[in-house]
Amino acid sequence: MQTLSPLLSRIATVLAALVIVLYFGDYVVVRLRSNPTGTCQITKLYAVPQKDGKTEYEAGEPETQTCVNSILPHLGYSPCWYLKRHKNQQVNM
Fold first, then answer.
1. pLDDT in tens, 13-67
2. Where does residue 28 rank: exposed (0-12), middle (13-18), buried (19+ CB within 10 A)?
3. Which residues contact residue 81 at a Cβ distance below 8 angstroms, ignoring those fewer than 6 apart?
């Protein structure tokens, strides 16, 4: 068991370094693109709690939301691939 601890520590360090490199590499690619953002049409579902404990859902108007063409969220926007898969967003009231 004593030889397993340094190995796990190295694996964790390498994984953390790879995640950091992925994030900053993705950020550099976004900054170098001439047009890193896109748009996606989403619909908001308003969840209104009722007095009897049930929840009523009301669909809002479709709206266009800005997204970023990358793997991870950058520049304050969600990735476009994520928004395209989650077109309905619930808003709890």
1. 999 999 999 999 999 999 999 899 999 999 999 999 999 989 999 998 999 999 9
2. exposed
3. 71
d(CA 30, CA 82): 16
- Strand-pairing partners, residue 56, are 48
Taking the complete model, does pTM exceed 0.85, yes or no? Answer: no
Alpha helices in the chain (DSSP H): 4-32, 80-85
Radius of gyration of the chain (CA): 20
Q: Which two tokens stand for residue 5?
A: 């601890």
Torsion, Cα 65 71 76 82, to 10 degrees, reads 30
